[in-house]
Amino acid sequence: MDLSSLGCRVPGCGGPKDGVCINGLSFDECPDVAPPTDEAEFDLENAAADDESSGSQPLAPSGRSMKRTADGASLNASTCDALLRQRGGTVVGIVAGPEAGKTTMIATIYELLHRRKLDGYRFAGSETLRGYEERCHLARVASNRERADTARTPNQAKLNFTHLRVGTGTGIADVVFSDRSGEHFDNVLDQPTRLSEFAELARADVILVLVELDRLAEHSHPIISYARRLVMGLRQYGLLENKILRLVGTKADRLEAKEPLDETVAALASLAEDLTRRAGGNNNFKPLVTASRKRRNGEGEHGLKELLDEILQPRARAKFELPMLVPEKMTEMDALMFPYWAART
């Protein structure tokens, strides 16, 4: 039998079709390889019918049927909402300007989980496996590139999400990362009212504000100003309340000498204190230093396990609140929030 015609029983793994086995086995040995079926598709109308019988509101305002699987590259707002309603999970909202290292950071977490190099965690599947593989390709030897790289999120790309299932010491955790072009955040600096449209930040359990350490070391003022303006805008629209907040310094691998790294880490800690004051209330920005590439001295990736620890830390779930105002014309971002609006009407 032609293996390329087979699929996989594990959610998020396309098996021989995708050329990647979640279990790390050859396809003729993997027990999950199976003939392709339509069972992986999730019919939102069926889910809505189940929810109506249990007294909850349907997801789609129009009642249209939507499929969750798409092409395996990413989830849009509606399909992300369907997954969260089915499984639950932690939503991570990422606030980052252009080329801040967001895509590289997410892809490296996936790669390290897949290679079992994050102590205490293991890769347990993904609904966006193809998307992670595409993001990791340019950093692999198979890409034939002289230097590792990561594909950037296109400037005009709409809001989407990537998904990871993470095995922990206490079970399986679902994590969803928002993936929004950095240019979107550039645009809201002059129009902060548009932050109210960033539904993934309202829904997020964890918000990560990313800062490039190499740029912080060389040109600190514009980086600090950028982060301050974003955080003040987020506070203005109530997007920081009841969240885990972290200031993540990226690209530590680009700081070669120990002295510049120490000085920059201190500057990051100072910025975290400044943002904590500007966020107000009990909102506390904790600084984290990360490197998603190996340094020239051979040191490997840094800080990503600690970041995952922060994301998956046990915590009491805060009650999620939204204003009563519901947009008359639904957008892709509003679709993510519709179940919560509907529950209050």
User: Termini distance?
Assistant: 55 Å
CATH superfamily: P-loop containing nucleotide triphosphate hydrolases
Could you give the count of β-strands?
A: 9
| Overall geometry | globular
Order of helices and strands: EEHHEHEHEEHHEHHEHEHH
Core attributes:
seven-stranded mixed beta sheet; globular; 9 strands; alpha/beta; Rossmann fold
Element layout with pairings:
Elements: E1 7-8, E2 33-34, H1 44-53, H2 77-87, E3 90-95, H3 102-114, E4 122-123, H4 129-137, E5 160-168, E6 171-179, H5 182-188, H6 199-203, E7 206-212, H7 213-218, H8 220-236, E8 244-250, H9 258-279, E9 285-289, H10 304-311, H11 332-343
Parallel strand pairs: 3-6, 3-7, 7-8, 8-9
Antiparallel strand pairs: 1-2, 4-5, 5-6
Helix pairs in contact: 2-11, 3-4, 8-9
